[in-house]
Amino acid sequence: MHKSLHTHIIGLGAYLPDRIMSNEELSKRVDTSDAWIQERTGIKQRHIIAKDQKTSDLATAAARQALEDAGLTINDIDALVVATTTPDMVFPSTASVVQYKLGGVGFPAWDIQAVCSGFVYGLAQMDGMMRAGMFKRVLLIGAESMTRIVDWKDRGTCVLFGDGAGAVVLEVSDKEGGVLGSVLHCDGSYRHLLKAQHPYPGASPDDSMMDMGIDAAGVAAIEMKGNEVFRMAVSKLGEVVHEILAQCSISADEVDWLVPHQANIRILQATAKKLGADMNKVIVTVDQHANTSSASVPLALNKAYRDGRFETGQLLLLEAFAGGFAWGANLVRWSK
């Protein structure tokens, strides 16, 4: 009898740029304060990509750590996927650049664009393809340089974002556990509430960015209707966490860890409440990383893993909400 296949996380890695911008520093540039930012978002600081770095550099560094953690080299990988909203260029894909920088050749490499839900979408896609027999090992990366597409004069958005990358190595086998299921959704009728206009990349940075030592690759472009986005995020995330549990026949009290997209501490708290989970079961990195879009879930995974919080057999619920609106969740039985 043919054994069923399961997709497991066997390696994790992360990279955060060296430069840290505190709320205090930011408050000298825009009409805001540390207290205002923390009260509304939970953010204390964010990492800023260096002038000579690109998104592919962040992704490559995180990927190297994940490969090392898995005890593998790039030659052991069958596919490479980068979830990103801030690619190095329009084309070729950032994944192809990362493949080259890692010394890989021949195997497929491509990008996924689902904004902050990119990693959750990517994990669902890779799980399906791997269990179908297409790949044995995949390198999945979430990487962003979001500070290059924010308007540094808009206090409603510039305080929210940071840069970084997180990566996982996935392996399919007949071992029980791993990814138990995924749920994905999108509703383009809400696209106007959270968006970033073209051109990107290649536009010249404005003076406010240069003053802060930020070499923006594109025009300051993120536009957000904050209150509307908040309400929809809380509503849809509350729905999707229960949807994935029902799909996998798992009760909410069986979930050991909620690993959410790190957008806003109030959204994390509201989602935990709808799940009936205490905040000590929620992985929180938004205070240190801010919103790193598609990198936030793998960064949170890596942080908790390095801290020794995950135990074999525990249930992890990953979820994210993004512009589009795109949202989704994955349920993972930790097996590393």
Describe the protein in words:
The structure is a single chain. By secondary structure, this protein is of the alpha/beta class. Helices cover 32% and strands 24% of the residues. The chain has a single domain (1-336), classed as Peroxisomal Thiolase, Chain A, domain 1 (3-Layer(aba) Sandwich). The protein contains eleven helices and 13 strands. The strands form four sheets. The chain has a five-stranded mixed β-sheet, sandwiched between helices. Strands 8-13-12-11 form a four-stranded mixed β-sheet, with helices on both faces. A two-stranded antiparallel ribbon has the order 2-3. A hairpin with a 3-residue loop joins strand 12 (315-322) and strand 13 (326-333). Helix 8 runs parallel beside helix 9. 53% of the residues are buried.
Level-2 CATH architecture: 3-Layer(aba) Sandwich
List how many beta strands DSSP finds: 13
Contiguous low-pLDDT stretches (5 residues minimum) are 201-208
The level 1 CATH classification is Alpha Beta
Summarize the amount of helix as a percent range.
25-40%
- The name of the CATH superfamily reads Thiolase/Chalcone synthase
What is the topology, as strand order, of the major beta sheet? 1-7-6-4-5
Rg, rounded, reads 19 Å
Query: What overall geometry do the principal axes of the alpha carbons give?
Result: globular
Structural class: alpha/beta
The CATH topology name reads Peroxisomal Thiolase, Chain A, domain 1
Question: What is the residue-mean pLDDT, rounded to a whole number?
Answer: 92
Number of helices: 11
Beta-strand portion reads 15-25%
Give the N-to-C terminal Cα separation.
Answer: 26 Å
